[in-house]
């Protein structure tokens, strides 16, 4: 891609340095709403001599973003509700690559209502922690996703990679352990919902 606007609370610019060093992008705007993390980013940028290719910007979301020469936006390391707040100020047609730590359902529903299509998804595993990454693009077509697709992700449900199956089984096992302590109708409903995702066919 030609340009990336990247907002993250945890990678201290290492992700966007990777984009440049591996020729994935030729220009990146590194955005943070706090000065100290941005200083860490600037330090890393200088260490790799990438001052001409990575431009740090202090901004709360898109509030101080005047540049429009990027075609991809990455947002990671924060909850789905926070990502929604940031995207609500986005007036570009850039491709979105999002890594919500929480509220994936709410974020996917937001994308649907804002005219985006979910074109790809992956799930990444680090021991017992699972991370969802969503790629979305604006579309003129009216997209329809079921509640199951919005909750688990339409691409993940269709492709069912092994990490996704492991995630579902782990969640079902954890819920069933809790069920042995209390016969909650809500727990039973949730277990059935996750089992439905395991059996889902497009």
Summarize the structure.
About 40% of the residues lie in helices and about 25% in strands.
Which secondary structure elements does this structure contain, and how are they paired or packed?
Blueprint (H helix, E strand, L loop, with lengths): L3 E5 L5 H8 L6 E5 L2 H13 L6 E5 L13 E7 L1 H8 L7 E6 L3 H10 L2 E11 L2 E10 L8 H6 L1 H6 L2 H18 L5 H15 L3
Parallel strand pairs: 1-2, 1-4, 2-3, 4-5
Antiparallel strand pairs: 5-7, 6-7
Helix pairs in contact: 3-4, 7-8
How is this structure best described in words?
With 202 residues, this protein is an alpha/beta fold. The model has no long low-confidence stretch (mean pLDDT 89). 42% of the residues lie in helices and 24% in strands. It has 8 helices and 7 strands. Helix 2 links the parallel strand 2 (28-32) and strand 3 (54-58). The two termini are 31 Å apart.
Notable traits:
7 strands, single chain, 8 helices, seven-stranded mixed β-sheet, 24% strand, 202 residues
Order of secondary-structure elements: EHEHEEHEHEEHHHH
End-to-end Cα distance: 31 Å
Main beta sheet: strand number and arrangement? 7 strands, mixed
Q: Count of DSSP helices?
A: 8
The tally of strands reads 7
| Spatial order of strands in the largest sheet | 3-2-1-4-5-7-6
Strand portion: 15-25%
Question: Given the helix and strand composition, which structural class is it?
Answer: alpha/beta
Kindly report the average pLDDT value: 89
Extract low-pLDDT stretches: none
Helicity, in percent? 40-55%
Query: Over the alpha carbons, how many angstroms does the gyration radius reach?
Result: 19 Å
Shape: elongated
């Amino acid at each position: 891609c030609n340009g990336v606007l990247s907002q993250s609370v945890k990678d201290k610019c290492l992700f966007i340095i990777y984009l440049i060093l591996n020729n994935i992008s030729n220009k990146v705007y590194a955005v943070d709403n706090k000065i100290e993390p941005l200083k860490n980013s600037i330090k890393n940028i200088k260490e790799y001599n990438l001052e001409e290719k990575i431009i740090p910007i202090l901004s709360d979301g898109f509030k101080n973003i005047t540049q429009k020469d990027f075609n991809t936006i990455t947002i990671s390391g924060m909850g789905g509700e926070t990502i929604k707040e940031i995207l609500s100020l986005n007036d570009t047609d850039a491709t979105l690559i999002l890594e919500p730590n929480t509220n994936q359902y709410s974020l996917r529903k937001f994308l649907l209502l804002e005219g985006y299509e979910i074109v790809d998804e992956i799930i990444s595993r680090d021991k017992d922690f699972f991370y969802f990454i969503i790629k979305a693009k604006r579309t003129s077509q009216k997209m329809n996703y079921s509640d199951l697709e919005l909750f688990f992700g339409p691409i993940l449900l269709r492709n069912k990679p092994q990490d996704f199956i492991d995630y579902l089984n782990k969640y079902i096992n954890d819920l069933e352990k809790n069920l042995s302590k209390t016969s909650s109708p809500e727990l039973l409903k949730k277990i059935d919902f996750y089992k439905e995702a395991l059996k889902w066919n497009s």
